[in-house]
Amino acid sequence: AQSVSQHNHHVILSEAASLELGCNYSYGGTVNLFWYVQYPGQHLQLLLKYFSGDPLVKGIKGFEAEFIKSKFSFNLRKPSVQWSDTAEYFCAVSSFSSASKIIFGSGTRLSIRP
Amino acid sequence: DGGITQSPKYLFRKEGQNVTLSCEQNLNHDAMYWYRQDPGQGLRLIYYSQIVNDFQKGDIAEGYSVSREKKESFPLTVTSAQKNPTAFYLCASTHPGGSPTDTQYFGPGTRLTVL
């Protein structure tokens, strides 16, 4: 069965620090990968997604993620975080053969100190 | 404005009672989903529907039921058989056609508390 692991439950950074949030998935076939973000009091929304092509994907607000197939990973990065990046971040995966079923990770809460 | 609405925002229920959570979308999306969000567990899929009058169980369907009589609406009933119903419930939908790469659009959620 597919699964998604986000090992960092809570990350605390100062403004301007670099960010990397880990995401590993278990599935042997072709996958689609997503990062969603939930800002305090707001709807869950898509940050970026990968389905084919360049493994380095750029999303909104300066975020990017790299798909490393050999490591089954899709880590989220941002070179310099801002206080407004405080949110909960969810990695998600769907298989190409069963695209309607998206599996979410447990989430990583990011707190940015001003 | 296009979007997904969920009502009510907060819901309280006594043990042993069924309760129905509303989800409506005006995005013309074919597929709709219900997730449950618990602290430290992320989102878990309860039910999903790819087309009107059709729906499939997700990973944690026991104690829940759904209907999809209209494209715009996908109500979720939490029955008394659900052992631990207190949670945050999120409804989502995707673009027509259900492409594998489609983005899911989420509603604001309903927080259900069983007293």
Outline of the structure:
Chain A has 114 residues and is mainly β. Chain A has strands spanning 3-5, 10-14, 19-21, 24-26, 31-38, 44-50, 56-58, 64-68, 73-78, 87-95, 98-104, 108-113. In chain A, a hairpin with a 5-residue loop joins β7 (56-58) and β8 (64-68).
Chain-wise SSE layout:
The complex is a heterodimer of chains A (114) and B (115).
Chain A: E1 3-5, E2 10-14, E3 19-21, E4 24-26, E5 31-38, E6 44-50, E7 56-58, E8 64-68, E9 73-78, E10 87-95, E11 98-104, E12 108-113
Parallel strand pairs in A: 2-12
Antiparallel strand pairs in A: 1-4, 3-9, 5-6, 5-10, 7-8, 8-9, 10-11, 10-12
Chain B: E1 4-7, E2 10-13, E3 19-25, E4 31-38, E5 42-51, E6 54-57, E7 64-66, E8 76-78, E9 87-94, E10 104-106, E11 110-114
Parallel strand pairs in B: 2-11
Antiparallel strand pairs in B: 1-3, 3-8, 4-5, 4-9, 5-6, 7-8, 9-10, 9-11
Please work out how many helical segments of chain A DSSP would assign. 0
Order of helices and strands of chain B: EEEEEEEEEEE
Whole-number mean pLDDT of chain A: 91
Give the termini distance of chain B in whole angstroms: 35 Å
What ranges of chain B have pLDDT less than 50 throughout 5 or more consecutive residues? Answer: none
Spans of chain A of 5+ residues with little confidence (pLDDT < 50)?
none
**In one word, what is the shape of chain B?**
globular
Helix content of chain A: under 10%
- How many strand units of chain A? 12
Largest sheet of chain B: 7 strands, mixed
